[in-house]
Amino acid sequence: MNLLVVNLLRCALALAFVGTAFVAQGQNQVLTNAFITQLISREYSVDIGGVQTPDIQQLTSREFSVSIDNGPANPWSQLSSREYSTVLLSGTPPPQVSAITASNSPSGSRVLLNWSNYNQWAVGTVARFDIYYSSQPFTSVAGMTPILSMPAESVASLLTNLPPLEDYYVAVVAVDALGNYLPAVVYKGVYVISPQVITRELTLAIGNDTPQPQFRQTSSRELSLVVDQATPPPAISKIMTALTPTGDSVTVNWNGYNQWAFGDIASYAVYYAASPITSLAGLTTYATVPGETFSLTLNGLPPWQDHYFTVVPVDAAGNFGTNVIYAGAYPLSPQGLSREVSLSIDNGPATVYSQASSREFSALITGTNTAAPVTGIGSGFTAFTSVSAYNAIDLDWTSYNELFQQDVLRYRVYIANNFFQDVTGMTPLTYVPAGIQRFTLTNLFSSLTYFVAVVAEDGSGNFNPLVYAISAQPSGPDITFYSQPQSQVAYLGGSASFNVSVSGAGPFGYQWLFNGQPLPGRIADKLSLANLPLSAAGSYSVAINNYYGSVTSSVANLTIIVDTNTPSLAAAQNGANLVLNWSGPFVLQTATNLAGPFSDLPGATSVYTNAIANEPQRFFRLRSKLPVIKK
Fold this sequence. Notes:
By secondary structure, this protein is mostly beta strands. The protein is 1% helix and 44% strand. Strands 34, 37, 38, 40, 41 and 42 form a six-stranded mixed sheet that branches. Strands 2-1-48-45-46 form a five-stranded antiparallel sheet, with no helix packed on it. A hairpin with a 5-residue loop joins β17 and β18 (249-253). The relative contact order is 0.11.
């Protein structure tokens, strides 16, 4: 896009056209009876952010060429060219970033920061943003080290792997190309869910840009649920275990526990001991898993020893119950299987037998026949998109007659991206103990199709490797598109922007893609592009993620065209007014400084009059109108 910039500085016209004479400000020589056939202005600006030595805050280059033609005998009788370069240094650092919003996960381990209200383009010298973190409120970053730096033009950042269930404080600091910044900050507090209060807010804007106002309807709803429970989450009453024959690996499963009925469970603490667990006194947590997790595989346990486990739900405030219900895992002796059932009766009427304990020992003589296949044509085994979890597949093999096999110890679950009929050499994704014939596979990718098979394993570790895998697609991550990026056409050197709007289980993270590859630092719901080169032409899309997975928008194509028209903008001062005129299909733009941003003057046509009496400076330029693209 060819641009001609006219600069009005302190009500004085930098360039004036009087008749056929050209007067250059700051020069004594006046050329008269000259005909100006071509006037070309080019600008090139580079912000260098602390990589080169010495640091250069801003480099501005101007080249001005005038062709003066005095007659047809020599079409280029005179050619005058001047190039002017300046280095602009400022001792004033960028202003403070004060308006920060934060959207954190319930546990606080992830937070999405946004400072889009900070007008970095008006500042003009921002090279990067430094993000600071502390467990205590702070008003200065002097002596602190940033945990992350984002490049200029960033307006958001996703912080991960933060300490869960702890309040913390963050600040964003703008840094110029010389490394100058203001150490005084306004911090933003990020707080996890309080012990008894859960708040959700949903705001929906309905409307479009026409007619005005822009948003014809705005609907806002806030739902606050106060969970006022004097007691911690109830104990898990049913814990299942599945182990290898030697007992060195055990899978603990509490899939039947309905955590959503209690509302504020943040994590599960898993305890392990070599003897029955009747109290948590003296025990330390063996492992901790986040809420909505219902199984855990523990490896490297002592072989040929009995193991005992209990799983304790913990709420967001760290409260948990002391009532212990444990499950035993007993490795196979060469020909014996030991099982223990323990029943604890508490808080009821006083009885002679306040506690009853029953131990049962069953001798298992394994046969030479392996368990029958679980999958196969007509077997009844099913795999469907989950209706109870995100990014998940529900498995069901209740039609399999487990009791008829007599010695099924557990089930092996296999998964692959392609069809398979033999699991020899494959590693099971997980194990499911005998007695459970429904299972949900989680943490899958909703955009992929998987093949799944289940194999029954007997007490000696024998199984039939021949299977018939069936396909299924996981459930989505609960992200619904309100609007998708739209294809568009822009001129070389112009600008373009893409937007996306979604709803679902937030908070959301965004990553814009160009020709399928991530664009570094472009992690907001809007992608703005300026000074477009030809290489910017291509396909754009955005990947959106939440705690349950990721989805990708439709592809929008950006077409870059070259404007062969040369704008010609003439300016003259008429008293307290500036009069501009031009010809051709151009749009007049204006800005308060040369770096912009420039904006269109709606309805401005040639001749255009601008009052300059009260303005210290004003810049104008022309841009070509985009052609109408017929689809």
